[in-house]
Design a protein that fits this description.
endopeptidase fold (from Nostoc punctiforme); alpha+beta; six-stranded antiparallel beta sheet; three-stranded mixed beta sheet
Length: about 220
């Protein structure tokens, strides 16, 4: 009886340990959700363009016949819902407005684009570009990425002087945009001041002089 009682107590102890371990494990807070950034959105958009994603209404980056596809707002959602290259995005991983118009309506920071005036387009990676019924992504250097034509690939082209009439830019509320300091985008260095990357200028920072070209890319340092 003594042996059996000892075994029973041991079983209770082990069970309690496992349960406590489980409870303790469950009590550990999950890692904070990845911060979504304007630079990250721009990198994601370029990836979609370079990988040949297709247009499919209602999609947000799912694989179809071995190729990912989205519609215009789905391209934005695919970044917010991204879980990696080996799986489909997870809908509602981040709460976001559904359509291009509702995305615009949800934005608190926005402005008008005049295609004859490049100064009306802020130098900010990851801005959302809007035209009635359509959205795209600004990736800097006067370039946009968007998905608009059934069966065709993601598009890449000029904003000012391009063949698509963008009317409005806005900041997506779910995305954090650069304010000050260096950022790396597509393998190049940019320097932000007061919320925009600098162009056609030099800056001396911590004793080092950096030169930035007309697209904002750091071209030299000494």
């Amino acid at each position: 009886m003594g042996f059996r009682r000892a075994m029973a107590l041991a079983a209770v102890f082990v069970t309690g340990f496992i349960l406590c371990g489980t409870l303790a494990f469950q009590a550990v807070p999950a890692a904070a959700a990845e911060t979504k950034t304007g630079v990250g959105l721009s990198e994601h958009a370029l990836m979609a363009y370079r990988d040949g994603w297709k247009y499919q209404y209602g999609n947000y980056g799912q694989y179809t016949n071995g190729v990912r596809s989205t519609d215009c707002s789905g391209l934005v959602k695919s970044y917010l819902w991204w879980r990696g290259n080996d799986c489909d995005p997870e809908p509602n991983l981040v709460s976001v407005a559904g359509s291009s118009q509702s995305m615009l309506s949800s934005a608190k920071v926005k402005g008008t684009i005049r295609l004859s005036d490049s100064s009306t387009l802020p130098r900010i990676h990851g801005l959302i570009l809007y035209s009635p019924g359509h959205v795209g992504i600004y990736v800097g250097g006067n370039k946009s990425v968007d998905n608009r034509c059934t069966g065709e690939n993601v598009k890449y082209g000029d904003v000012i002087g391009g063949n698509y009439h963008w009317t409005t830019w806005f900041k997506l509320p779910q995305v954090s945009y650069p304010e000050n300091g260096f950022v790396t985008f597509d393998g190049n260095q940019y320097y932000y001041e007061n919320g925009q990357y600098v162009v056609d200028t030099s800056r001396t920072i911590d004793g080092v002089t950096y030169t930035f070209d007309h697209n904002g890319v750091m071209s030299s340092s000494n």
